[in-house]
Amino acid sequence: MWHKLGLRGRIYIILSVLMLITLIGGVVMIRYTYRMETLLTLVIDRDIGAFKTAEALQTAMVNQKSIGSYYFLDKDPDWLRQLGEYRQLFKEHLSRASFMSDSKEQSDALRQIESGYDDYVRIEDRAYKKGDALLYRNAGDHFFKLFTLCENYKNIHRQRISDVSRESRREARYLRIIMLMAISMSFFLIFFLAIIFIHTHSELEKSREHLQQTEKMAMVGKLAASMAHSIRNPFTSVKMRLFSLSRSLKMSEAQQEDFEVISQEIRHVDTIVQNFLEFSRPPRLKMQAISPSAVVDMTLQLLEHRLNSYEVSVRFVRKENMPEIMADPEQLKEVIVNLMINACEAMGNKGGQIIIFEETVPDRSAVVIRIRDNGPGIPKAVKEKNFQPFFTTKEEGTGLGLSIAARIIEEHGGKLEAESKEGYGATFRLTLPAQI
Length: 436
What we know:
Helix content: over 70%
CATH topology of the largest domain: Four Helix Bundle (Hemerythrin (Met), subunit A)
CATH architecture of the largest domain: Up-down Bundle
Number of domains: 3
Shape: rod-shaped
Distance between the termini: 30 Å
Strand order of the largest sheet: 2-4-5-7-6
């Protein structure tokens, strides 16, 4: 599905996903900020306020206990007046705490505090009326019990503050994770978009070069075809006359040598013309079921004397004949001849060895022929241009042989590749589909 989309469609999809991620991230952030604000408001307005009220209750109780002790020391009635103020303050704090209560646990705790406080006040009042310091000291048990109840009430709010704090940290952690995921996804999509742009730019450059090359080759092909036809007709007459003269003239050894040179050069020009004609028109394949091994054998039989003249030996690496495929044997033979002659010329007249590897891929979907020589190899600067038309490193070459060979293999649905390391020979890999 993705590969079927054009560049514009891919970019629109990626940009839409980026916008969606940004929108979702923004909504989530807003939601979590409101959520955290609510939690903090609850802590500040309810739990911290209630916690402070609980502390105020304890403070009021401690003050009452201290004032009672001072009263029994000097019997000053002013202490009892201050005691009434602290009792009133305690009641106010207790009323405020009841107003802020929002759970049964808090209400029960406050009722226990209120009940305990009433008992404590009754005992204190009896001690004040009787002036009984011993009775007042006995009220200490009620005081510490009441103090513990206030502490328990404080613990309720302390726990709630702790829970809200933990919840806030959890919410903040979720928010960070979500934002990191959104940022990571955004970076990934931006990186992916950059790769698409780079790949597309590269493909456009290749397409532009290919188009320019195609236009140039089309123009050159038309010119080559026109020139080749124009040149070939008079050359045919020249060859026929030369053949006639060779049979009728009596020539000296020097003249015979000149005659041979002229004939050889004419054959060379005829080969160039033939290459131009083949390049200017696509090969018309005559497909038939044949084993590429048979084509290789026919080619070597044809080139036997030529290989001997170059003092080149040929070695096979063939486990078994390759399976039959649909191919044009004459065209394949032309490709192998071209590669073999190129290998011989690369190794020069000093002899050499060509190794032909034949193999069938494991799933039998293709056959592979590799032709390796032990010549000087292909320079790195030249390797990329090897199959370009009219490119040659030979003084008398046309630069069309490998281009024509590659086109023939492509017409068969295969691929011709060159592998080489300078100074270690060259290998041409010929891959053909094996389905019949």
